[in-house]
Amino acid sequence: MAERIKTDIIPVQQRFVGKKCSLDYKAICIFAALGFFLDDDTYYTDLKVLKPAHDYEIENDLIVNARPWFEWYYNPKEKTLKMAVKEFTELFEEIIKEQVSGKKVILPLSGGLDSRTQAAALKHIGVDIEAYCYEFLNGHKETFYGKKIAQKCGFNFRSWIVPKGYLWDSIERLSEINQCYSEFTHPRQMAFIDRFSKLGDMFSLGHWGDVLFDDMGVPDDLSFDEQVNDILKKVVKKGGYELAEKLWVAWGQENDFRGYLNERVYNLMKKIETGNSANARIRAFKSLYWAPRWTSTNLSVFSSVRPVTLPYYDNRICEFVCKVPENLLAGRKIQIDYLKKRDPDLARITWQAKRPFNLYNYQLDRTPFNLMFRVADKIHRSLSQKKYIQRNWELQFVGDENDIMLRNHLFNNPNFNQFVPPELVKYFYNSFKNNDSVWYSHPVSMLLTLSLFTRKNL
After folding, report:
1. What is the DSSP letter of 118?
2. Mean pLDDT value of segment 239-244
3. What DSSP string runs through 167-206?
4. Among 53, 222, 313, 458, which residue's CB has the most CB atoms within a 10 Å radius?
5. pLDDT tens for each residue of 266-317
6. According to DSSP H, which parts of 73-113 are helical?
7. Hey, is 217 helix, strand or coil?
8. What is the rounded CA–CA span in Å between residue 374 and residue 103?
């Protein structure tokens, strides 16, 4: 009997259909460049991921029929910011109330706007909350903002430090959780995975609010070809092209990688009908392909210990955004106004991206008003005796102990040595160590991911 599956507009989990037969080298090259698989690609040609917003009929692990039930669009309704905020308030709080009613909620907090907006809604609704925040060892004091938000809301709060080298004790478990469909340095939550289950019944996560409720940083009349170029700049990681191109040649693929990737992205963008709004099309592309295949993949860490809810992922939020004029989405206006109206005290807490300013004066984050802060911050970091940590990989790949573990995974795995030429691996490892660690951190991280994949699957 056929199974019917209706996927959400932004699926929380990947659902695989098919069999693990022949490796899809082209898809893996794209994975190497982007850090996520594109569209319904997987490691295998005969294994696919169900696409967002589709109705499927599946029989004997094969797709019998598939049709989209929702397609991203841009049909703005004329309204004021006040009207848009009122509609958002009613919808957002209704969704959160449905998701967490009667549960003890685990709420990750940060210095951004998405979790702060959730905190305001949860406080207003009246929910039992256990909040937490973490920061890098010797990094920016991100827990400062989480603690302030929790205090204003009356939430219980815990702060944690992401320790150096935590990855190596959790990499096997992480590879089982995400099935090697995302690289391993970004899910910082792995450092605390065993603590989460003690905090509450379910997570309320703020992922994707910053994409849905902001512009994409381009003129809305940007030409289609320029939109494709913008997407490629956004999704291809530093060093990603170089790694993918070398793998493409090593695996004997025809033509060239860049042409193949450009054509794939061009064709996917062509299918998105958002009229003349470049921002709406780019937002839709990211929501169709980046959110389900990268963001959702990393959500699996949370869902491995407790159920997850995501108010911004809700189908109703996606449809709401399609009807809001771009000028109201730009600059996070709706969330900022919501916070000012719902909880002014939360709006007065520093906005991390605009520090030292808050939601009432963040427009001053420009020269000359922010000059004194920037100079003082730079002097403070330069005088510090410890290296300032800004990136995930710095805690996992830098230092003698980390290097021993990294080399072991890259050079002492026979399956991986057969899959990727050892001289190619040495080239990227040496480039990371001796040339430009920032540029080559992504290629090294992807090679580490492929090493784990080959050990478990080849």
Report:
1. H
2. 98
3. HHHHHHHHHHHHTTSS-SSS-GGGGGHHHHTTT-SEEE--
4. 313
5. 999 999 999 989 999 999 999 999 999 999 999 999 999 999 999 999 999 9
6. 81-100
7. coil
8. 42
Half-sphere exposure of 69 (CA within 13 A, CB side): 14
DSSP secondary structure of 283-310 = HHHIIIIIIIIIIHHHHHHHHTTS-EE-
Q: What domains appear along the chain, each with residue ranges and CATH number?
A: 3-68 (no CATH), 81-214+288-363 (3.40.50.620), 399-457 (no CATH)
* pLDDT above 90 as % of the chain: 89
Give me the amino acid identity at 159. Answer: S
**Would you state the structure tokens that stand for residue 417, as one six-digit string?**
């040595």
Q: Cα separation of 429 and 445, whole Å? A: 10
Which two structure tokens, joined as six digits, stand for 49?
Answer: 């991921």
Q: Specify whether the CB–CB gap between 417 and 185 falls below 8 A.
A: no
Task: Give the type of residue at 356.
Answer: P
Name the residue among 20, 107, 7, 124 with its Cα closest to residue 54: 7
What was the pLDDT predicted at 388? 64
Q: Using the structure block, give the residue that is written with the tokens 């949860």.
A: 122
Alpha carbon 11 to chain centroid, angstroms: 13
Q: Which two tokens stand for residue 83?
A: 């009207």
- Maximum distance among all Cα pairs of the chain, rounded to whole angstroms: 68
Q: Report the pLDDT value the prediction gives residue 370, as an integer from 0 to 100.
A: 82
Q: How far apart are the first and last CA of the chain?
A: 33
Q: Which strand (E) or helix (H) includes residue 241?
A: helix 240-250
3-state DSSP assignment of residue 450: helix
Q: Say if strands 202-204 and 308-309 run parallel, antiparallel, or are unpaired.
A: parallel
- DSSP code, position 35: S
